[in-house]
Amino acid sequence: SGTFIHGNYWGGPGVFGNANTSHGCVGLQDVRGGGSSSTPAAWFFNNSLIGDVVVVKNSNDKTISPDNGLNGWNMSWSEWTK
To answer: For the whole model, what pTM was predicted?
Structure first.
């Protein structure tokens, strides 16, 4: 479960901020392998911390619950395997 922010190298430049091409995640323009420091994805990950609040402006979607996305990255193994 969850809504995540991740680099997206497979979407064309014209889709970012213009088209809903995901099943819920926020994709940021990136290059395959994430090796470029000049992409929007690189800027975001270099300037944010885990737990930062993210606001997606001009979206008609509802605000997601703070516990949306509980998984292996933010739960202990014992909690995840319950």
So the answer is: 0.67
